[in-house]
Amino acid sequence: MLSLDTFKHYISLRVRFNEVDMLGVCNNAVYISFFEEGRLQYLKHLGLIPSGGLFSDGSLFFMVRNEINYLGHSHYDDELHIYNRVSYIKHSSYGFEHIVFNNTSQKIVAEGSGVIVRVDPETRKSTALSQEFFTVVQEFESNVRII
């Protein structure tokens, strides 16, 4: 189980009406969107989004894996904190970890992880991450593993 005290970054959001299913809980598929928003805001916070916006530098990144463990429920208008961190970096890929903390109930309701690969836009083959990426993430995440 992941621990909140090992995360330096989080975003806050509220569960919207359209994210709640007919059982009255936040639909399980919505958590993927929460993780995605957390990842983008994390990269933005670290200054790793190109100044011209996403995709403006010609780089491509593919999400190749998502994993979620559901531990509880969220409901309409609950305030959630989505905690995000890069847990490891390889030559052309890196792993994110996430915790969804329901600030309304004061409980962790989900945890998850994902893998992102940098891809050459022409060949669609994996390609090396930039040295800047390694440096910036290592400066922010003291426990990131370099594999």
Secondary structure layout plus pairing:
Layout: E1 9-14, H1 30-45, E2 60-70, E3 79-89, E4 93-102, E5 107-119, H2 131-140, E6 145-146
Parallel strand pairs: 3-6
Antiparallel strand pairs: 1-3, 2-5, 3-4, 4-5
Structure, explained:
This protein has two helices and six strands, in the order βαββββαβ. The relative contact order is 0.22. The two termini are 22 Å apart. The protein has 147 residues and is of the alpha+beta class.
Number of helices: 2
Percent range for β-strand residues: 35-45%
Order of SSEs: EHEEEEHE
Mean pLDDT: 95
Kindly report the oligomeric state of this protein: single chain
* Low-confidence sequence ranges: none
Classify the secondary structure makeup into a structural class. Answer: alpha+beta
How would you sum up the global shape? globular
Under CATH, the topology can be stated as Thiol Ester Dehydrase, Chain A
Q: Summarize the main sheet.
A: 6 strands, mixed
Integer-rounded radius of gyration:
16 Å
- Please name the fourth-level CATH homologous superfamily: Hotdog Thioesterase
* CATH classification class: Alpha Beta
